[in-house]
């Protein structure tokens, strides 16, 4: 046990001896006794008030990340004189920017509060997205995509950490799935939206793709994020156009905070404290981190090329540009239902590893469907392979993040979640190079490589499940039981993440 862990254990011992002074969190009341249904009603407020708004914010991020794929079905590549190698490099630079800022932005967000920091970055990346309207060559595209990626760094783990303030560990997989389902929401809306925007070609002297990039203007109004998002359940007094309002009552705030801290006392110990360099070192020397990172990396190699080229693949089957963008939304709708159902099942039965493997293998099956289908096969059958792939890619992302969150103590979570999202983004480096122009339009070789990686990711996560069974108290996380806090060997009472 290293020094940091000993310090945390000492603080936990203080909780056992005198619970109230040890945890100094506004609204925390260990003596509060909820009435039947009272916690559920308070939790429903979080589900209906905060979660949808966070999902909406994430949708705008996803629009900005994927609108390039819709632009490629228009005359974008021709107008600025670029080809597949330029597009792949631009996407790689986007990932470089994202990875560089991921950890520092997440640490800043933890210190000043996601509700304060993220609106600033959203405004700036909205400016960068909007500036794509003026791109005229490959160099301009490289610069803009790099800055969009850099300004989006830290957004995903910061909001994932923010959500953990309101939900117990056993409730996170479903909520994370809804959060990450923003990818699917954006895909569902992005297809019809792109059809409408691309059809404006010639209006105002703009190309269709220029109208598409103008959507970045919506990200330039970040004030509403700060107005609507509280720093925690107790800090819900807000002012809007001079009028004040409270999201939760005082009792609801106390119920929400107390249930989360009782579920995982480390959230109370580290409340209001910054991430220290020793915490970064401790997190990256924790063996539990790496199975989740490797599995995420391998499983997500498929997502960048599919996000970028799926509309083009659909178009190559014999559909028009507008039809391809519309049909691309179907896969996103199916992905939304599949990912949320998978996460709901995972929370319901208290199991993580097998559910994650199912998600990975589902995507692999779709990739092989596309790669190995015989020539001359009906275009609708091939389109079915695209939809199947889109259903699986990223479907287990939220469950894996929730499992990792549960296994890490609170002072490790900002670093662990940033590392997790970084591993997903790093998968874009090989992913962006998979689909080569000489392999178009079906990209057989790239699809087979991506499928192989997803299959191996399923193997890795199942091995990690076995390791947890043997060495780390099943799949469980941090909890308080019978007056003793057990680190890395226990779980939330009433759940069995096995």
Automatic annotation (TrEMBL):
InterPro entries: MFS, MFS_dom, MFS_trans_sf. GO terms for cellular component: membrane. It is a multi-pass membrane protein. Coiled coil: none annotated. PROSITE patterns: MFS. Keywords: Membrane, Transmembrane, Transmembrane helix, Transport. Residues 50-469 form the Major facilitator superfamily (MFS) profile domain. It is found in: Membrane. Its main location: membrane. The keyword Membrane applies. The chain crosses the membrane at residues 117-135, 141-164, 176-197, 209-229, 289-306, 326-344, 356-374, 380-403, 447-467. Gene3D superfamilies: MFS general substrate transporter like domains (1.20.1250.20). GO terms for molecular function: transmembrane transporter activity. This is Vitamin H transporter, putative. It comes from Talaromyces stipitatus (strain ATCC 10500 / CBS 375.48 / QM 6759 / NRRL 1006) (Penicillium stipitatum). The lineage of its organism: Eukaryota, Fungi, Dikarya, Ascomycota, Pezizomycotina.
